[in-house]
């Protein structure tokens, strides 16, 4: 399949030269960018799309999410609570999770992400209730293939239950041998390290307060043996820091060093409660900045500029929908910009730098150099924005407009792997209404079941 995007008003490439091109075309052949230039003409059969007055960028790369949580949004019992009480309360609902819920939760998340400019997402799925199937990651991968999104599935885990000093209830923990065996199964079955790969696997023990030190060590050994990346939550709250000091006599970053979780193959979610020395020690690692979640749970503000200056790779992510409560990547970009300026004032990151974190930065955090950039021989993951809405009137810099203006976060077009997946804000690969109806029914059943049996 070939596409010719004609007369694009601006192309923000995020290439090594930081080029922003004007009034040029992009020719897509199969799943990659074949060429970018003025007045491209193609002899072969090709679909031509007029992109006059549109702005093109690489798709956003979402580096931290919990898809299943799309089915547990707005639950009254857990509103207005910080992380630990929030988690404890939600686990009572989450323990009823099943494969169908995981599948449709993923479809909801993918749809929201794609419609707001995201072309690649990871998911950190760590919840495997005792009474359900072990093949929940498989359901996410099926959903990604069905909808057409580039996907990094992080096989999460919880092994340290309440009875052993952890935070989660024992009803959702797994045996560590089972976790490691399934992790290896998923890598062997699905991980594709080739250029333009649509699916990859990472290993992701949930957090320092929900897995044992042994599982952190064994997971990193397996990941490095198999050549896959590592991910976990880190330094999200002061509660986590207190837990690590009480359990291990170490702060979270010290613990990561002890279990050898430092390096270019590791990325962490949040990283809020760290000092200058700890930031320096994270050099080479990646960080997922999750502004909406951090604000809702009152966790704090990620030191984004300091991390970048220290050589840490920075990306932007939506986090789990039950703490956000949306999967809107465009909105996360805006909030990242505003929080950065709240913390750093006039020394904050500008609009271009924030957008670069959300695109090329996300690709680098996931260990990829084939996405996140618009140039020849890179993946045809392209998002087109229409800035002709009244909300952008009078804005003299379209990049600033993207970050600070707008009444909607629905994009004009999302192209993934050379295919148009979203057009005029609407999904082309699935019926959104059917996904909504099915997901809503499943969500209602799960939540009402817990409420009924709790009485």
TrEMBL record:
Matches recorded under Gene3D superfamilies: Metal-dependent hydrolases, Urease, subunit C, domain 1
User: Pfam family example for this protein?
Assistant: Amidohydro_1
Q: Please report the stretch or stretches of sequence annotated as the Amidohydrolase-related domain.
A: 56-420
Decide whether keyword 4Fe-4S is in the record.
Answer: no
Q: Which UniProt keywords apply?
A: Hydrolase
**InterPro entries (alphabetical):** Amidohydro-rel, Metal-dep_hydrolase_composite, Metal_Hydrolase, MTA/SAH_deaminase
Descriptive protein name? 8-oxoguanine deaminase
Could you tell me which species this protein originates from? Clostridium oceanicum
């Amino acid at each position: 399949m070939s596409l010719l995007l004609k007369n694009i008003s601006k192309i923000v490439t995020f290439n090594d030269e930081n080029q922003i091109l004007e009034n040029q075309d992009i020719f897509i052949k199969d799943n990659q960018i074949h060429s970018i230039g003025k007045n491209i003409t193609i002899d072969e059969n090709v679909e031509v799309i007029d992109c006059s007055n549109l702005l093109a960028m690489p798709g956003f790369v979402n580096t931290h999410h919990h898809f299943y949580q799309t089915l547990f949004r707005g639950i009254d019992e857990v509103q207005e609570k910080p992380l630990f009480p929030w988690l404890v309360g939600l686990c009572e609902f989450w323990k009823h999770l099943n494969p169908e819920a995981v599948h449709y939760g993923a479809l909801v998340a993918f749809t929201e992400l794609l419609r707001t400019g995201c072309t690649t997402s990871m998911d950190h799925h760590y919840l495997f209730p005792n009474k359900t199937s072990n093949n929940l990651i498989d359901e996410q991968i099926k959903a990604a293939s069905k909808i057409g999104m580039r996907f990094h599935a992080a096989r999460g885990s919880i092994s340290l239950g309440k009875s052993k000093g952890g935070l989660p209830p024992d009803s959702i923990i797994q045996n560590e041998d089972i976790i490691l065996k399934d992790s290896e199964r998923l890598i062997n079955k699905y991980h594709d390290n080739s250029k333009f790969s649509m699916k990859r696997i990472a290993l992701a023990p949930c957090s320092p307060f929900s897995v044992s030190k042994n599982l952190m060590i064994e997971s990193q050994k397996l990941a490095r043996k198999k050549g896959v990346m590592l991910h976990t939550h880190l330094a999200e709250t002061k509660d986590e820091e207190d837990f690590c000091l009480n359990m291990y006599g170490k702060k979270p970053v010290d613990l990561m060093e002890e279990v050898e979780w430092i390096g270019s193959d590791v990325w962490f979610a949040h990283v809020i409660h760290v000092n200058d020395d700890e930031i320096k020690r994270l050099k080479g690692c990646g960080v997922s900045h999750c502004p909406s979640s951090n604000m809702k749970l009152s966790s704090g503000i990620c030191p984004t500029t300091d991390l970048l200056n220290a050589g840490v790779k920075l990306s932007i992510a939506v986090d789990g929908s039950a703490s956000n409560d949306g999967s809107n990547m465009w909105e996360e970009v805006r909030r990242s910009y505003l929080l950065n300026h709240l913390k750093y004032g006039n020394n904050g990151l500008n609009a271009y730098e924030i957008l670069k974190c959300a695109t090329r930065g996300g690709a680098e955090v996931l260990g990829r150099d084939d996405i996140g950039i618009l140039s020849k021989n890179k993946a045809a993951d392209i998002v087109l924005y229409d800035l002709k809405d009244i909300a952008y009137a009078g804005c003299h810099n379209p990049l600033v407009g993207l970050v600070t203006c707008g009444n909607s976060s629905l994009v004009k077009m999302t192209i993934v792997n050379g295919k148009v997946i979203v057009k005029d804000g609407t999904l082309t690969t699935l019926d959104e209404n059917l996904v909504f109806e099915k997901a809503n029914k499943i969500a209602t059943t799960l939540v009402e079941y817990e409420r009924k049996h709790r009485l």
